[in-house]
């Protein structure tokens, strides 16, 4: 395959990721949901916890399905869950309805479809797999740049139900087209034998898993509260909060190819060390100077950059350590760290904000980043493959 075709499929995969990354715009929905249903920070975070948890869960399940069954059927099923979730969310009300539709259905569909572009990129013959993975994932990170202002405008013009309806109609068409374009590139043979996970016997897996868990715990907790912190602490309007969410998403997106490049050039250990050292600094900075709007902007730019970086470091490390052959299955298992980070992080984060302050939350983030830094410095995965 020529480089021109390789980059074309990377672009298509990136565009699909752009649509799937709408989950990172949830804090815009969150303000509307809190006001509409009178919810506190923990309650309003439940749909976000669920959408991310089921997204991660079905990354793992989807990795098995892609190895066993028709890629076409799997991709169409994922599309149906996402579009159906939005459409049903428009017809339901209350926290329970949104949690089941937006949280469970859309999260499951995103997890299923998320694996398709990554599976395709992993099969492209290119000397820089980390960079290609990062470029593909940039769409997921940049999504709020497009969707945060769109969602805010739709909510202001039409309300929550109509916004969900419009998104459902758009997604069923566009995701179907992108799936059709990517499906033929998946040439991995199907395997019907019993699925096993030899990587569970490798201590390197647990090191990467722990680092990935901490990185996503910090990133997803802050992402879920970005608009709230912007409005409540930085004293921004809801429209301004949506604008800055889009700006921050640029750094989320840039973090993916940047850390993919760093992983290829300086290795996993130094990249992870750089990530956690910067997270310690900015978390403490916000804890000490939270009332400064400049500090708010700088801190969130760095947090989003690092979160995007871990969405590139983890898959790149998985390929480098365990090979390409079972990548979908292996990374699906690795990605459960993201799900647990989302579930625990948002539950704990919402509770801390309810009981204490936003500043207390950032003190916790600094402590977790210290643990991550220690793990990265003491012992981290080598940079060569340990499996074909």
Structure in words:
- With 388 residues, the protein is mainly alpha-helical.
- It has a single domain, classed as Growth Hormone, Chain: A.
- The chain has 15 helices and no strands.
- The protein has helices at 3-20, 26-37, 41-44, 46-68, 71-91, 94-122, 129-158, 160-182, 203-232, 238-266, 268-288, 293-322, 327-334, 336-355, 358-378.
- Helix 4 (46-68) runs antiparallel to helix 14 (336-355) and helix 7 packs antiparallel against helix 8.
- The two termini are 21 Å apart.
CATH class descriptor? Mainly Alpha
The radius of gyration is: 20 Å
Task: Tell me the helix content.
Answer: over 70%
Strand count, sense and barrel status of the largest sheet are: none
- Overall shape: globular
Order of helices and strands: HHHHHHHHHHHHHHH
Explain briefly what this protein structure is.
The relative contact order is 0.16. The chain has helices spanning 3-20, 26-37, 41-44, 46-68, 71-91, 94-122, 129-158, 160-182, 203-232, 238-266, 268-288, 293-322, 327-334, 336-355, 358-378.
Record keyword descriptors for this entry.
single chain; 388 residues; mainly alpha; Growth Hormone, Chain: A; 15 helices; 82% helix; globular; disordered C terminus
